[in-house]
Specification:
The complex is a heterodimer of chains A (790) and B (446). Chain A is an alpha+beta fold and 790 residues long. Helix content of chain A is 41%, strand content 13%. Chain B folds into two domains: 1-32 and 196-272, no CATH class; 46-189 and 276-428, Alkaline Phosphatase, subunit A, CATH 3.40.720. The chains are: A alpha+beta (790), B alpha/beta (446).
Chain lengths: 790, 446
């Protein structure tokens, strides 16, 4: 069958010279020894296979699933790429033909889908389509923050300045997801004013009180990472001091009945110790404790500093969490004193703007004489605008900024002028939007290679979620970035830079839905020891884990199967890993094979559970979405509720499996839940907060056996992982699709799939190392090209 | 930030060194506007829309007894003290929101259609489209003279990532307020940001005037940048430019309105909130207090308030419901789930009731704020188990400047279009339109 398949290819009438570059390695490995037959067969073997296994449902009459394959011509797949790409996805995922209907054997099925992919890739090579990213790509909140950090050397609390962005196609960096509105414009204006003020070091409109709150769900009875040894609880916060001035620090405590000694540190230096004595506790009408005395006024130099407070003395002999495991700290406060907030108010009696990193970055020159000021301002603003606008500046850019500068300088001198110009820069469309403009004279619908400078921006926003640095801009300005060797050097350099941690925050946080951990709320009754400390630990574990794959350039398959993870004492105790002491995270080897990989991590297991029980449906869907890349279709409308308590279960609670089996006894639900639920069963050995368990909620032994849509059987998480990785290209393709969506900032289209497959194939040589996939993306057609709008 | 001539006292920021204390802080501040200050102003209508997600168990919502003798059901119970100021409405449906061929996504459709009667376009991409909502239709007219045309508030601080619901963009869940079919109005969850939108950054009057002038010139120059950019672009790309320019113009208009306003004593004496409180309950109350202040100071006359977005699975352990809202809303006639879902519905209603009580106790012109307001409380779906936009629980409240005959339960024939109520609501605040969404007329007997 296969060799005859190859013969059909020969008859497609596509010139060989056109296809060479795009002919995939795997296609060439197919046993295609036979020569084209002398005559055209009436029906190709692919057509025969299609007719036998697919068209019996997907025909003009039945149109099962809204799809008919009958009228489509296999000899010209390029005419219906969208449909055929769907077919590829279903077959790769082993979803079709549905279980219960006759299926070809796996070799035949894989042979067919490979043939189909090859044909699609050839068609694409003949008529490549890089797609079109939006012309205006608004910086999202994270990018805005990072750009301010990299342009002005200023860390800002962007969440308090700008509203969150809405995600499209799963990511909040997809261009045009939400439009610019009046209220957003207003936030940009206010943010620009506050940021330029902080950067230059002018006094705020009035002294400001800023409160750093400490969630009551963060345990205060254990040592907190970063605080001095021999202390417990407290908090460590970053605070920006706008000027050299005096500031008032105020600490709010709870549960001081037993007394406590609180130590106050600034940048690690002990400045003051407060003693709260037993009996001096005062409570206001609402039951809130008042600790008026815990206040100190001190001179502080301008800049970003670390404000910390911690209680003297180690943890109580028995940690509260162990002693009273039935009480959640949000329900009942711990016996030990706890820090609730740190408020910093100021500046008072300012002595000057001080010497901050921002001022050093901004004031690269100083006007020495009267006539000097404008030329110095020009120097300063040119340098900042180059980075902020991500390109060499033009005279018109500077003219606008100088107009703003002059208005400010006329009011209150040179520095105020620079501050005004910065405010202007931060609301300029050239800063707020990444722009990609068709080259002048380009024909409608033509493909073109984007400029080096545009490529530099795509690269830095992909890897850093920020603006290019000087080196990258320099290389791009010399038009050397299109040189593949130079490009690879930049990618490696940028990945090695700590700024690439943005990938973990922004890409992983959304791809794996880690950000949803924030809103997970496991039942306090059933899981009394689940608190924000554990939640934060879960998140950190998964972040460090992904980070290690990226930095050590490991295979992405390790994401599902690595034998190590990262834990601190809290997470280790939760997982039952012995001999881990202390609040810092460290790498540990996992002897428990069930626990290995992402699917054994508390973060993923918690966000895919209900507050009171596990959800094989959520877990199964998570795997279909994020690992196999075959999201199930939405449930049909007006689904009748599960008849949980009828008939057979009248006298007892049904088990999870029994309840789920109702999904599959109802034909409306069965077609999808037969795929979804059995995947989720594989993780039943983990409870709703990711602890190992041997029995379920009803004290019945766990049955963790299940089956993949392609028929592979497994029992438990370890075998599930192995089954998922049996054909590794599925997971690698899914990851590549998600990464490419994130990198381009647009949703993928069927015409992007040939590029995805090429990246996956090329990375196979390095056993799918993460960096090779990232390089593949950077070198791909859609990343480097764009189509002129038609 | 743009409010002028409003004496936000300096001591607001200075008082007690670290005046930005734990929340809630507003209770003591609310009566700060004396009747004398507000009496001179003619009564103006205020309009509010409060959304609670995931429907209701209807027998616990709708009374049995129609008319003035209606009884307070478990969900309506919190409204006891304002019973004579409300109208409970049944029979309304948003049939247009349903589409059997589009499959799942019911939460998204019914939430987005609540105030527009228009089904949102199924897309996860950037080509989002829904209907202009009645709050925005009203804001375009009755919001013209206030510094803010309208205010959008949500209590959901977390933004969902990944897929929202079956191929629908998350934006349909994140807001129900749409200025045009393609322009959603983002909702603000941070009390600090809401405060700054209402009252600005503080400082002296002169300082605030200076900032306004500065904002104007910043916007002027930014328009120049955009005009230069526009010349480099193709026709199609110019729509984004126009969005930018429209946003700029809207802010400029707002500055003008702020400068025109001549009433210097409309500000309450309150410290700026520090951020999102830890406790959801505190967060909710603070946001309702800010809503009250916005009406009271006449900074805006239209508020869209989302207690929670559709499909929200938040647990409410502090009222005795440790289970997720969405999962108990699918009660399947299980008495325990019904009890829990009803507890949540009643809790949400109690937050609304608290707002109404405060509005009732706040003098405004010749009466109270509540006398001059029309508030609509509701959800997108009727029975929470079936998740269908039929027989949608709705409560109207307030005097609407004498145009609402309150203290009643009114039953309309099944499947009366929701937007017939929308037309009626617009009527009552003096806004005339031909049609909204799938409306077929106005409601009689309201």
């Amino acid at each position: 069958m296969k060799h005859r398949g190859a013969s059909v290819l020969g008859l497609l009438g596509i010139g060989v010279t056109l296809c060479v570059a795009a002919t995939p390695v795997r296609a060439r490995q197919q046993p295609d020894s036979a020569r084209p037959p002398a005559t055209v067969p009436a029906k190709s073997p692919q057509q025969i296979l299609l007719d036998r296994y697919c068209v019996s449902c997907h025909n003009d009459r039945l149109k099962t699933g809204g799809l008919t394959l009958a009228p489509l011509d296999l000899a010209d797949v390029g005419a219906h790429t969208e449909t055929w790409e769907k077919v590829v996805r279903k077959l790769r995922g082993g979803l079709m033909p549905p279980a219960g209907l006759p299926r070809p054997d796996e070799t035949t099925s894989v042979g067919f889908v490979t043939w189909l992919e090859t044909a699609l890739d050839r068609a694409a090579a003949a008529r490549p389509n890089p797609g079109r990213t939006e012309t205006f790509h608004r910086l999202n909140r994270a990018e805005y923050r990072n750009a301010v950090r990299d342009v002005l050397a200023l860390e800002i609390d962007v969440d308090s300045l700008l509203p969150a962005d809405t995600a499209s196609h799963g990511f909040d960096n997809v261009a045009g997801g939400i439009k610019l509105s009046e209220s957003l414009m207003e936030r940009y204006l206010l943010a620009a004013r506050q940021i330029s003020r902080s950067a230059v070091g002018s006094p705020p409109a009035a002294p400001v009180a800023q409160t750093h709150k400490i969630s009551p769900a963060i345990p205060q009875d254990v040592h907190i990472e970063g605080l001095p040894f021999g202390t417990r609880g407290g908090a460590l916060v970053q605070h920006f001091f706008p000027q050299d001035a005096e500031y008032v620090f105020r600490f709010e405590l709870a549960n001081t009945t037993a007394g406590a000694d609180l130590e106050f540190l600034l940048d690690g230096e002990r400045l003051k110790q407060f003693s709260v004595n037993r009996g001096q506790r005062s409570v206001d009408a609402d039951g809130n404790e008042i600790n008026e005395k815990l206040e100190v006024r001190l001179p502080v130099k301008a800049g970003r500093r670390e404000v910390a407070a911690a209680f003297l003395g180690g943890s109580p002999p028995i940690a509260e969490a162990n002693r009273r495991p039935f009480l959640n700290p949000t329900v009942s406060r711990p016996a030990a004193a706890a820090l609730r907030s740190i408020t910093v108010t100021g500046p008072f009696d300012a002595t000057g703007a001080g010497d901050t990193a921002s001022r050093r970055r901004i004031f690269s020159c100083r006007p020495r004489a009267m006539g000097d000021a404008t030329s110095c301002a020009t120097t300063i603003l040119s340098g900042l605008a180059r980075r902020a606008y991500r390109r060499p500046v033009e005279s018109a850019d500077i003219e606008t900024l100088l107009l703003a500068y002059r208005a400010g300088a006329a009011d209150a001198g040179f520095e105020r002028g620079i501050e005004r110009a910065l405010q202007q820069l931060l609301v300029s469309p050239e800063y707020l939007f990444r722009l990609e403009v068709d080259p002048p004279g380009a024909a409608v619908g033509a493909n073109y290679r984007i400029s080096d400078l545009e490529l530099a921006s795509r690269l830095s926003f992909f890897l850093w979620s920020s603006v290019p640095d000087d080196e990258l801009l320099e290389v791009a300005s010399r038009r050397q970035l299109r040189d593949p060797a130079a490009l690879e050097r930049q990618v490696r350099r940028m990945l090695a830079d700590p700024k690439s941690g943005a990938l973990t925050n922004n890409f992983v946080g959304q791809w794996l839905r880690l950000r949803n951990l924030e809103s997970a709320s496991p039942s306090e009754v059933l899981f009394p020891d689940f608190d924000d400390g554990l939640k934060a630990g879960f998140k950190r574990e998964t972040e460090l884990f992904f980070d290690s794959i990226l930095r050590e350039n490991r295979s992405v398959l390790d994401l599902l199967s690595a034998d190590y993870t990262f834990v601190n004492d809290r997470v280790a105790r939760h997982y039952g890993i012995p001999n881990v002491n202390g609040s810092h995270f460290r790498r540990v080897t996992l002897p428990d094979k069930q626990r290995q990989g992402l699917l054994g991590q508390g973060s993923i297991l918690t966000i895919t559970s209900h507050p009171v029980r596990t959800s094989p449906v959520f877990r199964g869907k998570w795997i279909l979405d994020n690992v196999l890349g075959t999201p199930p279709p939405p449930p049909p409308p007006n689904v009748p509720p599960l008849a949980e308590r009828t008939g057979v279960y009248a006298d007892r609670q049904p088990s999870m499996r029994e309840r789920m089996s109702e999904h599959r006894s109802n034909p409306v639900c069965a077609s999808c839940h037969a795929m979804i639920d059995p995947l989720g069963f594989g993780l039943e050995q983990f409870d709703p907060v990711g602890r190992r368990r041997e029995v379920d909620e009803l004290y019945k032994p766990i049955d963790a056996s299940g089956v993949l849509p392609d028929g592979t059987r497994f029992n438990g998480a370890a075998e599930l992982n192995a089954a998922l990785l049996r054909r590794p290209d599925r997971f690698v393709t899914t990851l590549t699709e998600r990464l490419l969506t994130y990198a381009l900032g647009r949703g993928l289209e069927p015409y992007d799939m040939p590029a995805v497959r090429a990246i996956v194939r090329a990375s196979a040589d390095s056993r799918y190392s993460l960096q090779s996939i990232m390089l593949g993306i950077v070198n791909s057609l859609p990343f480097q090209h764009r189509r002129v709008s038609s | 930030m743009i409010i002028t001539k409003m004496a936000l006292p300096r001591r607001t920021f200075l008082r007690g060194l670290g005046a930005v204390v734990a929340l809630p802080v507003l209770d003591a501040m609310v009566p700060a506007l004396s009747a004398a200050q507000t009496a001179a102003r003619p009564a103006v209508p205020r309009l509010g829309f409060v959304y609670a997600p995931n429907g209701s168990f209807l027998p616990n919502f709708f009374p049995q007894q129609v008319g003035r003798q209606f009884e307070l059901t478990p969900v309506l119970k919190p409204l006891e003290s304002v019973r004579d100021r409300i109208v409970v409405v049944s029979g309304l449906a948003n049939k247009g929101a349903e589409n059997l061929s589009e499959g799942g996504g019911v939460h998204t459709r019914i939430g987005a259609a609540w105030l527009s009667g228009t089904r949102p376009k199924k897309t996860e991409g950037t080509d989002i489209e829904a209907g202009t909502s009645i709050d925005q239709i009203a804001a375009a007219q009755i919001g013209r003279d206030t510094p803010l045309q309208s205010l959008q508030i949500t209590l959901d601080h977390d933004i969902i990532v990944g897929s929202c619901e079956n191929g629908y963009s998350c934006v349909y869940q994140h807001t129900f307020s749409w200025k045009s079919p393609t322009t959603p109005m983002p909702m603000e969850s941070n009390p600090r940001s809401v405060f700054e939108r209402l009252f600005g950054e503080g400082g002296t009057a002169a300082e605030r005037m200076a900032r306004l002038r500065q904002d104007r010139s910043v916007l002027d120059l930014a328009k120049g940048d955009m005009a230069r950019l526009r010349r480099r672009l193709g026709l199609k790309d110019r729509s984004t430019v126009d969005d930018y320019l429209t946003a700029v113009r809207d802010v400029e208009l707002r500055i003008q309105r702020a400068e025109r306003s001549t009433d210097p004593t409309r500000l309450p004496d309150m410290p700026a909130p520090v951020g999102v409180p830890d406790s959801w309950d505190e967060h909710a109350k603070l946001m309702f207090d800010l809503t009250l202040l916005a009406y009271q100071a006449d900074i805006t006359r239209v508020v869209a308030f989302q207690i929670s977005r559709e499909l929200n699975g938040r647990a409410y352990p502090w009222i005795g419901v440790p289970d997720g809202h969405h999962s108990v809303s699918h009660h399947q006639l299980d008495p325990e789930k019904i009890t829990k879902a009803t507890k949540i519905n009643a809790y949400h209603m109690s937050l609304f009731a608290r707002l109404l009580e405060r509005m009732r106790d706040t003098p405004d012109g010749d009466g109270s704020l509540l006398d001059h307001s029309l508030m609509m409380y509701g959800t997108g779906m009727g029975d929470s188990d079936h998740h269908t936009p039929v027989n949608i629980p709705t409560v109207l409240a307030g005097g609407a400047c004498g145009r609402l005959d309150a203290g009643r339960f009114v039953q309309y024939p099944a499947d009366t279009p929701m937007m017939n109520l929308g037309m009626t609501v617009l009527d009552k605040v003096g806004v005339q339109v031909e049609r909204v969404g799938d409306s077929t007329g106005r409601l009689a007997n309201l």
